[in-house]
Write a structure and sequence with these properties.
Helix content: 25-40%
Number of helices: 20
Strand content: 15-25%
Shape: globular
Distance between the termini: 22 Å
Number of strands: 24
Radius of gyration: 23 Å
Structural class: alpha/beta
Length: about 575
């Protein structure tokens, strides 16, 4: 195994570890260990492949494994390591004899070149080939962007050539997308330059992962379902106030063609040569933040256990995983892993980033409020048993680790110190055993935060009060009227997908710990009729992020031999 190489252990950066790893040919791995015929695989080079649609159908005849969800505390600049834990746990389960497949989301280029620098795990718990995964991979996000922007182009083209549908340019809600952080494109004006270029109107860009097309791809169950959902997209209104769909433009067929390969789940491997399925879905702060239903279902037929993740904290990713993905697909996790670090909890306790390396039990005790609320949400709001994984850092002291374990013991929740970043699957064996104990205990009784028959307003209120600890929600009279209009138009049975800051239970990203009694203000409402949910944008969160003052792109480079550096 690659993890056994002493040379790997001596290296420091994630990309160096990934580049030095010995990868198995993906066709060999998938066919020999996971019993997939070669005809089920479409190779993208030697280390990546897609599962064919025919293979996805054939897999349904196999028995279904157990699903484990990895989520986390509210993220901090100190880092938590949710993806790293997902990979390490998967490797750990394989080490203790449980055939396990990992189901992850694909990275977006925006964060790769912006803040994070990569999203394929870290240390000895990574999925590889890391550079490919973090860059263009198999082109899925590019295809999603093209499908999204084809609809945008057809809308403006229809208006230019006579506007038979009587599209009201003032009521077009469909936005263009690109997979890069670019704040300058949040609000734009298109069709300038005279009559030959169309009718000028206000427009804007979102990042690809915020596109409804991304959500549709991740929630679709077949190519036919994908096409149906794309046709249901509502892009705006005509001058009579009637909603118009992509089907009215006859755009959904061509959009589906652009996505015919992107809908197929991608296969890669971990550093320990265990299978990983990566497909769609990041950004639980502005999207539903889950990998595709088709990928998760395929993984469940390939392994006895499947370890998957949902974006950001359990208030966003896990809530949407349960209330949207599970509700729509019938999937049910058997156990949940909540990732925390001593460093991040001390940050939630009020410490400055520079002070996180020193022992501080007082700050840690204060920051535990964040973890405790996430634990209560998972157990009480979602009805799922959980274990806390303490992602170990070398500066952690025995007293700090014990403090977390004692606090969790009072809640009846195990807390396991995991060292997968340094040791790979061997460092996650204790966590793996605890997960197996929870799964085999059969304690899961998943429930939703709100009922289908609740109104859209009451669904948002339930999320805010039950999960975020808020006193209530608010909105301007204009937004309230839009919500009521969607309710009256027959969309009230849809789930609500909240877009808000990931850094806090509130809409204030600086409010650490477990704030309560706040009000969640709804700034904007968007109908995602193809994805079958309603997006409520709260606070100041943006659906097109911006680059930081010193973006990760400044450190990313390539040498004359084609060797990439700077990804981490």
């Amino acid at each position: 195994m690659a993890r056994e190489s002493s040379a790997l252990r001596a290296m420091k950066s994630d990309i160096e570890l990934a580049q030095a790893a010995t990868l198995l040919p993906i066709l060999e791995l998938a066919s020999q260990r996971y019993r997939l015929p070669l005809t089920a695989l479409e190779p993208y080079g030697h280390t990546k492949a897609k599962l064919t649609l025919a293979a996805l159908e054939e897999l349904k005849a196999r028995p279904q494994g157990k699903l484990v969800l990895v989520t986390a505390i509210s993220p901090t600049p100190a880092g938590e390591g949710k993806t790293t834990t997902t990979v390490g746990l998967g490797d750990g389960l394989n080490r203790i004899g449980k055939r396990t497949v990992i189901a992850l989301r694909e990275p977006s280029l925006g964060p790769v070149f912006g803040v994070k620098g990569g999203a394929a795990g870290g240390g000895m718990a990574q999925v590889v080939p890391m550079e490919d995964i973090n860059l263009h991979f198999t082109g899925d996000f590019n295809a999603i962007a093209l499908a999204n922007n084809l609809l945008a182009a057809m809308i403006d083209n229809h208006i230019h050539h006579g506007n038979a549908l009587d599209i009201d340019p003032r009521r077009i809600t469909w936005r263009r997308v690109m997979d890069m952080n670019d704040r300058a494109l949040r609000q734009t004006v298109v069709s300038l330059g005279g009559p030959a270029n169309g009718m000028p109107r206000e427009d804007g860009f979102d990042i690809v992962v915020a596109s409804e097309v991304m959500a549709i791809l991740c929630l679709a169950t077949s190519l036919d379902d994908l096409k149906q959902r794309l046709g249901d997209i509502v892009f705006g209104m005509n001058r009579a106030g009637q909603r118009l769909t992509a089907r009215d433009l006859n755009a959904h067929g061509a959009m589906t063609v652009l996505l015919k390969d992107a809908i197929k789940p991608n296969l890669v491997q971990t550093l320990e040569n265990n299978l990983a399925v990566l497909h769609g879905g990041p950004f639980a702060n502005i999207a539903h933040g889950c990998n595709s239903v088709m990928a998760t279902q395929a993984a469940l037929r390939l392994g006895e256990y499947v370890v998957t993740e949902a974006g950001f904290g359990a208030d966003l990713g896990a809530q949407k995983f349960v209330d949207i993905k599970c509700r729509k697909s019938g999937l049910q996790p058997s156990a949940v892993v909540i990732v925390a670090t001593v460093r991040a909890l001390k940050f939630h306790g009020g410490l400055d980033l520079k002070a996180l390396g020193a022992e501080n039990l007082e700050a840690l005790a204060k920051g535990l409020a964040n973890l405790e609320r996430h634990v209560r949400n998972v157990r009480e709001q979602y009805g799922l048993p959980c274990v806390v994984s303490i992602n170990h850092f070398t500066a952690d002291t025995p007293a700090e680790l014990q403090l977390i374990q004692d606090a969790m013991a009072k809640l009846g929740v195990p807390a396991v110190v995991a060292r997968h970043w340094a040791l790979g699957g061997a460092g996650a064996e204790d966590l793996a055993r605890e997960v197996v104990r929870l799964v085999e205990g059969g304690q899961a009784a998943m429930k939703f935060t709100f009922a289908d028959e609740d109104s859209l307003w009451n669904k948002m209120h339930a999320i805010a009060t039950k999960v975020y600890g808020a006193a209530g929600i608010s909105a301007s009279s204009k937004i309230k009227a839009q919500i009521q209009a969607l309710q009256d138009a027959g969309y009230g049975h849809y789930p609500v997908c909240v877009a808000k800051t990931q850094y806090s239970f509130s809409t204030d990203p600086t409010a650490r710990g477990a704030p309560s009694g706040h009000t969640v203000d709804i700034r904007e409402v968007r109908l995602a009729a193809g994805a079958q949910f309603v997006v409520m944008i709260c606070g100041d969160v943006m659906t097109m992020p911006g680059l930081p003052k010193e973006p990760a792109a400044l450190r990313i480079d390539i040498d004359s031999q084609g060797r990439v550096s700077g990804l981490f």
